[in-house]
Amino acid sequence: MSAGRKFREALKENGPLQIVGVINAYSAIQAEATGAKALYISGAGVANASYGLPDIGMTMLEDVCIDIRRITGRCDLPLLVDADTGWGGAFNISRTVKEMTKAGAAGCHIEDQVAQKRCGHRPNKELVSIEEMCDRIKAAVSGKTDPEFVVMARTDAHASEGQEAALKRAKAYVEAGADMIFAEAIHTLEEYKAFTAEITVPVLANITEFGATPMFTKDELGSVGIDMVLYPLSGFRAMNKAALDVFKSIIDEGSQASTLPIMQTRMELYDMLDYHSYEEKLDALFAKSK
């Protein structure tokens, strides 16, 4: 079964489908262990975690594909990927879909911001025309080597152009071939309900912390017809805070002892990685005959 098919099956079987953001292979393993059914890698996650850069369009396709390959090489859950604005013109966008599919992704979303993009929950976002975004979608669809690969269109229009403009754009993107819609920075359940009532394909709600969208629950979003709930950087934010607390205790207190309770133990790490099975394999392969 292709990765794209796995994602579509997970969507059918889970209502709404919770999509958990991960930043590397180990966090993907942890998410799978908790029962997650689908994963996500965000452009911000790649820029922030892998390159120490802000999410303003400085990373490129191969930067993202490196992280895709690392995650899909270790975890079989379907992975949705942030493709930003597609990294160029029609041929570049088509290549983005081809390369992400080859790397093991189940799908990607492309947004309607200008190439010099900003975080979706920051002010002063600038959008391309509907026509240009529809061309991006057509180019992405043309790049499918797996017909089940998901091309999702993200619209950032709600914040800068309003709800009606966002709906108008979303409808046009579906007509252009988008398999699903990502409605960014929506403020109310009623506005989400308008999306699901008027849009004929599955709709995703992005429930990111400290942003423009309230912390709606899975059940609340399901009640207004949302098909997917995305948590793009929740684990990453927690990792960052925990690591900072540990580093601070080492420098300020001269020891990490006070922060041991927030650490994963060595044995918990080994268990998550199935470390002992690797040792047993080595012992079996290279055991000395007596």
UniProtKB/TrEMBL annotation:
<feature type="binding site">
    <location>
        <position position="266"/>
    </location>
    <ligand>
        <name>substrate</name>
    </ligand>
</feature>
<feature type="binding site">
    <location>
        <begin position="206"/>
        <end position="208"/>
    </location>
    <ligand>
        <name>substrate</name>
    </ligand>
</feature>
<dbReference type="InterPro" id="IPR015813">
    <property type="entry name" value="Pyrv/PenolPyrv_kinase-like_dom"/>
</dbReference>
<protein>
    <recommendedName>
        <fullName>2-methylisocitrate lyase</fullName>
        <ecNumber>4.1.3.30</ecNumber>
    </recommendedName>
</protein>
<comment type="similarity">
    <text>Belongs to the isocitrate lyase/PEP mutase superfamily. Methylisocitrate lyase family.</text>
</comment>
<dbReference type="GO" id="GO:0000287">
    <property type="term" value="F:magnesium ion binding"/>
</dbReference>
<dbReference type="InterPro" id="IPR012695">
    <property type="entry name" value="PrpB"/>
</dbReference>
<feature type="binding site">
    <location>
        <position position="82"/>
    </location>
    <ligand>
        <name>Mg(2+)</name>
    </ligand>
</feature>
<comment type="function">
    <text>Involved in the catabolism of short chain fatty acids (SCFA) via the 2-methylcitrate cycle I (propionate degradation route). Catalyzes the thermodynamically favored C-C bond cleavage of (2R,3S)-2-methylisocitrate to yield pyruvate and succinate via an alpha-carboxy-carbanion intermediate.</text>
</comment>
<dbReference type="InterPro" id="IPR018523">
    <property type="entry name" value="Isocitrate_lyase_ph_CS"/>
</dbReference>
<comment type="subunit">
    <text>Homotetramer; dimer of dimers.</text>
</comment>
<dbReference type="GO" id="GO:0019629">
    <property type="term" value="P:propionate catabolic process, 2-methylcitrate cycle"/>
</dbReference>
<dbReference type="GO" id="GO:0046421">
    <property type="term" value="F:methylisocitrate lyase activity"/>
</dbReference>
<feature type="binding site">
    <location>
        <position position="154"/>
    </location>
    <ligand>
        <name>substrate</name>
    </ligand>
</feature>
<dbReference type="InterPro" id="IPR040442">
    <property type="entry name" value="Pyrv_kinase-like_dom_sf"/>
</dbReference>
<dbReference type="InterPro" id="IPR039556">
    <property type="entry name" value="ICL/PEPM"/>
</dbReference>
<feature type="binding site">
    <location>
        <position position="237"/>
    </location>
    <ligand>
        <name>substrate</name>
    </ligand>
</feature>
<dbReference type="Pfam" id="PF13714">
    <property type="entry name" value="PEP_mutase"/>
</dbReference>
<feature type="binding site">
    <location>
        <position position="184"/>
    </location>
    <ligand>
        <name>substrate</name>
    </ligand>
</feature>
<keyword id="KW-0460">Magnesium</keyword>
<feature type="binding site">
    <location>
        <begin position="42"/>
        <end position="44"/>
    </location>
    <ligand>
        <name>substrate</name>
    </ligand>
</feature>
<feature type="binding site">
    <location>
        <position position="84"/>
    </location>
    <ligand>
        <name>Mg(2+)</name>
    </ligand>
</feature>
<comment type="function">
    <text>Catalyzes the thermodynamically favored C-C bond cleavage of (2R,3S)-2-methylisocitrate to yield pyruvate and succinate.</text>
</comment>
<feature type="binding site">
    <location>
        <begin position="119"/>
        <end position="120"/>
    </location>
    <ligand>
        <name>substrate</name>
    </ligand>
</feature>
<keyword id="KW-0456">Lyase</keyword>
<keyword id="KW-0479">Metal-binding</keyword>
<comment type="pathway">
    <text>Organic acid metabolism; propanoate degradation.</text>
</comment>
